[in-house]
Design brief:
This protein is α/β, with parallel strands linked by helices.
Amino acid sequence: MIIVELIKNTALLVALAAMYPVMLAHLNKSLFSQRILFGLMFGVVGVLGMMTPIHYDNDGIIFDGRSVLLAVAGLIGGPLVATLSALIMAVYRLWLGGIGAPVGISVIFATAALGVMFYFIRQRTGHYLGPLSLLGFGFLVHGVMLAIFMFLPHYKGYQVFKELGATIFLVYPLATMLISLLFQDYEEREKSRLNIEQLAYYDPLTALPNRSLLIESIDKAISKCEAAQCDGALILLNLDRFKTLNDARGHASGDVLLRAVAERINSVVEAGDMLARMSADEFAILLVRAKQNSPSIDVLADQLAEKIQIALTRPLRVDTEEITVSSSIGIASFPMDADDTTGDVLRRVDTAMHRAKTEGGNQSIIFDHSMSKSVENHFLIERELRQAVHSGQLKLFLQSQVNNAGVIVGAEALVRWQHPERGFISPTAFIHIAEESDLIIEIGRWVLTEACRLLTCEGLAGRSIVLSVNISPKQFRQPRFAASIKHLLAETGADPTHLKLEVTENLLIHNMNDVIAKMIELAALGIRFSLDDFGTGYSSLAYLKRLPIQELKIDRSFVQDVTINPDDATLVESILAVAKHMKLQVVAEGVETEEQASFLNARGDVIHQGYLFSKPELAADWLKRLAQQ
């Protein structure tokens, strides 16, 4: 009968203990709070076991599963859990009284202490003990328990050992192993859930919340602000020229810098605000404040952005170097209206951040609705332009280039977009959008192809006309650019000596040796090169003498005021002097008055391009006019 009662008592403890992980999984507590709850739970379960004990005799000697629970409490929960649960059980056992009370209390603290000892063994050996180890742990705990029983008065301990020792060694160590395995299994599953949560919601480099967690937090913030009197704001920060450091020093140094930036930003972010890493060099800060008249959430966010900018002016240590960074910051408040969504907030703040970056960086900009219209227009133009490239909406225009006698010696090939609904669209409305995307490569390839075909037409046969084609840096940097030009010349039969490629000084910023190699390879075919917008970029004579160019093109901004602005006049005269010294031809853009043309002709042999001589016109119309010359 006593064996059956012992097994029933142990089974009750197993069932009660197994409920703990289920309850704990539904609670959102700190680790300390969880351990307090853990200790209370085990203490209460132990007391419940002692409320339905097995009475050995009428002298106050009882058996229950407290030794199992206390051993497991120490093994799984550590010192705090074991101490709390042991105190609860000890107080109750003292209250029960009887001659077995002192021994019972000693068993409580001894088994808890053994559990704590094995807790530290688990910490050193990887937290998990196998079934055999746990079974051995159970035998040790209950061997100690039986040894303590020997201190019962009137040789009661020997009687207990003789009558119940085998049963205790059969049931209690197995129960200890089973409960320990239950908790270890829960522990392992909980740890797995946390390595998954960490990967899903936290950035491995900076340990900050990632984009996913930020989005969930914005969702909650919007709901909170709609339900309560509060306002929210999102700050989006992108480091200026981070790619330069990454390319120059490598990704390892880039990672060190990102961690340093995260720490620096975190130092000025207020407690309760969320700092997250959105992507490579992009961070976000989420603010939620109670609604108030002054200052507004926009002002608070702007003040925080200013603190961040100031904090980043102090050098950051990257390996052995000190590096100073700046950032472009966008700010967007929410909710704008009852239908505001997280996607809306992210779009607004991204728009503001990109506006800050395009305006030179190292500044913060608060979103306003005019930006939204600009972005929508940008998106519409890019989408329609992509269709235009493949549906024949692009048209080739030519603008004449004439010598000082007014004779056409060449023309610049220009692209115009004939929209099916809006008619001809100015290049100023779409070229910069094409430059920001891959479309400029496709458009540049189309213009180059049309120009080469035009060179083979009957209208240019026997004429020494040179067609100039603008080449964007993106197009020029394509790995097979030179090979594609050779293929195009072979395919169309165009004479390369009548083709001129116009490049800007921006092309020379990166990988100048590769640029020069490509230019030399194409120049060997007879293709000429012109340096466009000369004087507006770096204008270094050091690189100018290395380039295989035959022509400098004076930007229209200098020609426009050459007769009224002494500075522009001096600059143009200097360019003409450099060109003469280096035996380079000069083309002046934007010649619109006789006074401008006379100024240029008086100072050098200049080719003129501008409205004074001709406007850009369709290639077919330009050929007709050329035939009349």
